[in-house]
Amino acid sequence: MILVTGATGFLGTELVRQLAETGLPVRCTRRNHSIIPQALLKYSNLIEWVEADICDIFALEAAMELVTQVYHCAAWVSFKQADKEPMINTNVTGTANVVNACIDAGARLLHVSSIAAVGTAKTGELITEKHYIEETPVKNVYAISKLESEMEVWRGIAEGLDAVVVNPSLIIGASAGTEGSGALFETVRKGLGFYTGGSVGLVDVADVARCMIALMNSDNTAERYIINAENWYYKDLFNTVADKFHVKQPTRQAKPWMLELAWRGASLIGSITGKSPSLDKISAQSASLVQNYDNAKIKKAIGFEFKPVDRTIDEVVAALAV
What superkingdom heads the lineage (predicted)? Predict the structure, then answer.
């Protein structure tokens, strides 16, 4: 039996869809308020839904019955300092529970980490799996939570767990809608006057799921893999998306000091209105960083060729233009 945590999320839904397409039965965990994605309803004969929060040890143990493979996709994503403690509890303690359950059941684990948990390289060099962020100087609470979650997996591996870790870059796809990475496309569609000087790694959600399935069914173990199709400068990305939406390209570069003012202003407005700020500190700072990722390890490990990002952009634009 295959178990997938976080199956109602953007990546989890695509992963379950691909597993079900092959005719494999899948057990999926969800919290009691989570809605089963429309895209998975037609596979109801193959999917068993169980209510099990990863922080609930007993529910998780029950969900692990007869399970031999676990895809751990569940995570809390936030960049707000106010969410630090509960997010770390969910992401780190939850992952520790999953790791322990896999050890007890003798199940193989594929843990979905994040590119946020990967460190930086010297100027002009590609970032590889050998880079790790250092918690002390990093203010990105999400990155810290994902790094510490990874550490729980490595702890499990030291105790005999059969596991691999994947670190996807920014995952894009038509099924995101206007949430998550889809919000970036929607922002450009509505009109974006500024671009930033940084770069970002991009990968299609379907490719991430394919890599995960291939790794799970391989002999690779105790390894970490960056899942990234291509590296794009934000300017090129925004211009490409704008052209495909037939809207004006952003013409002015937002300098780091401008972004500093912007996130502070957004934070002030958010504190007054009670709504989440439109721009947070971490996103503002990251937007000016050039971060290019090496995908050679995953390509060699499973012989994988990534879908061109430009094709995925076409699909996202087509879905949002409807």
Answer: Bacteria
